[in-house]
Design brief:
Helix content: 40-55%
CATH architecture: 3-Layer(aba) Sandwich
Strand content: 15-25%
Number of strands: 7
Shape: globular
Number of helices: 6
Radius of gyration: 17 Å
CATH topology: Rossmann fold
Order of helices and strands: EHEHEHEHEHEHE
Number of domains: 1
Distance between the termini: 46 Å
Strand order of the largest sheet: 3-2-1-4-5-6-7
């Protein structure tokens, strides 16, 4: 059974890729986990791998729905009595070109990548303040520089701005805020494996844990992580 003092780490988009890798690293570090995604089967398997309900709770969540986000945070409080880290990681990309993806795909991308992250902040807000916890958001290298025809880049610029807006609002509450900005990562995010030696999901997970495990007075606001071979 977990120690009652074990901190609690919530991750959206936890079923695969960076979310799943971060869950494994956080479990190794002693956190109890709230794992959220739309894909229940993979989520349940991961929760079982990491110790079952005593250590890891799988919660199906559509991050675009406010009621679902509220229920997600309440699940953490009901199961474990606290919430120390919230990682707004859910998101997806699409084809470049303003005539490539459909308007419906753009709408879903905005709802997931931008509104979903904002709803995670809102839902977790009070619990994070109470715990003097840590908020993390997955942005991207594409959220630091515009990519040609990339609507995904547009959404990640919004997430980058959201992270700084949140940092300023949480200032003096004890809550730390970190933007995670990966470059090319070999995850299910991509239909085809990258041609270069890309980062692995675990490379990003280690960066997440680096930020979270700093002393309380240290707030690592941005971590931009590229493969050595990535030119831009």
């Amino acid at each position: 059974m977990p120690d009652d003092d074990s901190k609690v780490f919530l991750i959206t988009g936890a079923s695969t890729g960076i979310g799943a890798a971060t869950a494994r690293r956080a479990a190794e570090a002693g956190y109890r986990l709230i794992l959220a995604a739309r894909s229940e089967d993979k989520l349940r398997d991961l929760a079982e791998e990491l110790g079952g309900d005593a250590r890891a709770l799988a919660v199906r969540c559509d991050v675009t729905e406010w009621d679902a986000q509220q229920a997600l945070v309440q699940s953490a409080l009901d199961a474990y009595g606290r919430l120390d880290v919230a990682f707004a990681n859910a998101g997806f990309g699409g084809a470049r070109g303003f005539k490539s993806a459909t308007p419906e795909e753009w709408r879903e991308m905005v709802l997931t990548n931008v509104l979903g992250a904002a709803l995670t902040i809102r839902a977790a807000y009070d619990a994070l303040v109470e715990a003097k916890g840590h908020l993390l958001l997955t942005s991207s290298v594409a959220g630091r520089r515009a990519l040609p025809g990339s609507f995904y880049s547009v959404t990640k610029h919004a997430v980058t701005a959201m992270g700084e807006a949140a940092r300023q609002e949480f200032n003096d509450t004890g809550v730390r805020v970190t933007l995670i900005e990966p470059g090319m990562v070999d995850t299910p995010f991509f239909d085809k494996p990258p041609k270069m030696r890309a980062l692995e999901a675990d490379d990003i997970a280690r960066a997440v844990l680096f930020a979270v495990q700093q002393p309380p007075h240290v707030d690592v606001n941005e971590l931009l992580i590229r493969p050595t071979a990535q030119p831009g």
